[in-house]
Prior knowledge:
Blueprint: H1 2-13, H2 16-40, H3 45-48, H4 52-62, H5 69-87, H6 90-96, H7 101-135, H8 142-170, H9 173-196, H10 200-206, H11 220-245
Helix pairs in contact: 1-7, 2-5, 2-7, 4-7, 5-7, 5-8, 7-8, 7-11, 8-9, 8-11, 9-10
Amino acid sequence: MFNILKAELNKFLRSKIFIALTILLFAFPLLTASMYQVVKNTLLGGIIGSNEGDLARETFLASFSPMNNFGLLLLVLLLIVIVGDFTNNTIRNKVIAGYKRSKIYGASALFTLIAVVVFATAYALLSYGAIGLVMGFKKIDVGKMALHYFLLISSLLVVYSFIHLLAFLFKSIGATIGLGIGTFFALMIVVSILGLKGQGELLIKIFPFLGLSSTAVYSYGETLLLIVINLGYLALFTGLGFYANNKLDYK
Length: 251
């Protein structure tokens, strides 16, 4: 499996998709910071001035959402890589070369999760730094923020483990995005409706990954519990992927 993973990473690092993601990784934080700088230099700057120190933290927390500009592009571009194994028939070549299906799926899933952790983390840190330099930094509880980072990144990995499963099932970027994002949106609507009734937090505690679009910070105990629940979903979707992969026809 690790031989396949190494080959996938080397191919990815030489690809145009990696170059595009790297450019976007720096472009979006710089563009957002520039927009805040313009706002800060106008009359509108006084409106947000009292809360400007919080903007860097809130931007960091919101950066992990798959619904933001970079998040959506990361999703689409990684899907091109994943589904490309089917459209280019390279996945059949791996089978012919003697690799087991479980190792092929495992390498692909691990590649996806590694790419997500690296790019999502880098984007969040660059966004935090860029906005902080423009709007100012506020003293934060580093320990609590680090723990919340693990909650957010584990939530994102749950989403991508589900997306990766769909990509192998449908072998189509459109179908995977449609069903994956559609499911996420549907659950978020349910959370919003329940939130109006004061029950939204309960659903997020059952499905912690739905909190990706929220900047709420929980207590240490609550955060640890949510991370453990996320790890359970990650194991579930990954396990389902391995099971379904053994039934697939690589054509």
